[in-house]
């Protein structure tokens, strides 16, 4: 079959012949419709992501929309390595049928970034009964903007969206979010902007898609002087690390606040938990609650897709 193939961690992926995926009992082969080129896909292909097994050659891709033998469109993924989803044929362990009205390529582009914020949001709502105020760091990327939309749709009392893309922030403000531009290049300036937002409404949940110095600015904004009892708990969830893989965590913040810092991602969230949430997510793409701007590339133009940048998500489709 034709597939995107990564031969070494440093090599640009190419379109080439690759063995058909191994058959699995009870699982029919699916024909690719579209597979999103997500940050995690790049990280796994290059060996930089913690989930990489460093085995090459491989077919990249963690999820896709595909067509069954009887013509149904399904969302699927988690193919057994070395096979991924950027190939003409897929054999995968699950299928979720797309409802009428769902754009299959938008689903392919948006489901992976959407699930990253959705899981901690739904976990918090189940645990606390409500979301309260949600602060999203890195809100102008696709994952962050979908998290803002998800928090609003799940009934958050207030959603604060922090990021550096002013045009994207304006769109989120139009949806009902409070926006915090992170202007300048200094964490001190970011901490001041975040501090002003935090002073208006203490977040019950922080979704951090960027980490690094932005996280350090958030820690400074969340800190407080004095030894009075902390009135409200904060869940701080680390999801992405586009701004840096390391951040300094002040000891005083942990002692002075009822704050819980955790991560959310493959490994800490089970595959079964994520699969159970997929139908609800897909419904939101079908009804227009979620949007995922995308740019389409056929398998034969994978090198262009790999170089793709901007506000849209690259989606690989068959030639």
Task: Describe the model.
By secondary structure, this protein is α/β, with parallel strands linked by helices. The protein has two domains: 125 residues, Medium-chain alcohol dehydrogenases, catalytic domain (Quinone Oxidoreductase, Chain A, domain 1, Alpha-Beta Complex); 150 residues, NAD(P)-binding Rossmann-like Domain (Rossmann fold, 3-Layer(aba) Sandwich), CATH 3.40.50. Strands 3, 4, 5, 6, 7, 14 and 15 form a seven-stranded mixed β-sheet that branches. α2 crosses α3 and α2 crosses α8. The protein is elongated, with a radius of gyration of 20 Å.
List the helices and strands and how they pair.
Layout: E1 2-5, E2 14-17, E3 30-36, H1 39-46, E4 63-67, E5 73-77, E6 89-90, E7 96-97, H2 104-128, E8 133-137, H3 142-153, E9 158-163, H4 166-175, E10 178-181, H5 187-200, E11 205-208, H6 212-222, E12 234-238, H7 251-256, E13 259-263, H8 271-286, E14 294-298, H9 302-306, E15 313-317
Parallel strand pairs: 8-9, 8-11, 9-10, 11-12, 12-13, 14-15
Antiparallel strand pairs: 1-2, 3-4, 3-6, 3-15, 4-5, 5-7
């Amino acid at each position: 079959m034709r597939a995107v193939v990564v031969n070494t961690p440093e090599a640009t992926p190419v379109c080439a012949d690759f063995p058909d995926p191994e058959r699995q009992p009870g699982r029919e082969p699916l024909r690719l419709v579209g597979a999103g080129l997500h940050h995690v896909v790049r990280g796994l292909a290059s060996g930089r992501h913690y989930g990489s097994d460093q085995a090459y050659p491989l077919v990249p891709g963690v999820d896709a929309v595909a067509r069954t033998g009887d013509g149904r469109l399904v969302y699927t993924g988690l193919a057994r390595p070395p096979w991924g989803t950027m190939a003409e044929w897929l054999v995968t362990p699950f299928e979720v049928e797309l409802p009428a009205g769902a754009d299959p390529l938008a689903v392919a582009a948006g489901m992976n970034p959407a699930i990253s914020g959705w899981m901690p949001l739904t976990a918090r709502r189940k645990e606390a009964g409500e979301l309260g105020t949600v602060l999203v760091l890195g809100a102008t990327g696709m994952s962050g903007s979908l998290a803002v939309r998800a928090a609003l749709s799940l009934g958050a009392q207030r959603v604060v969206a922090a990021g550096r893309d002013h045009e994207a922030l304006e769109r989120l403000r139009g949806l009902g979010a409070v926006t915090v531009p992170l202007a300048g290049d200094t964490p001190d300036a970011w901490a001041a902007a975040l501090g002003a937002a935090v002073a208006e409404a203490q977040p019950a949940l922080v979704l951090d898609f960027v980490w690094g110095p932005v996280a350090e600015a958030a820690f400074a904004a969340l800190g407080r002087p004095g030894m009075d009892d902390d009135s409200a708990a904060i869940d701080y969830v680390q999801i992405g690390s586009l701004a840096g893989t390391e951040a300094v965590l002040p000891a005083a913040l942990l002692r002075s606040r009822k704050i819980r810092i955790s991560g959310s991602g493959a490994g800490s969230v089970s595959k079964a938990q994520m699969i159970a949430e997929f139908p609800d997510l897909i419904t939101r793409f079908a009804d227009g609650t979620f949007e995922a701007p995308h740019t389409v590339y056929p398998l034969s133009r994978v090198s262009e897709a790999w170089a793709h940048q901007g506000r849209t998500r690259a989606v690989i489709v068959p030639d």
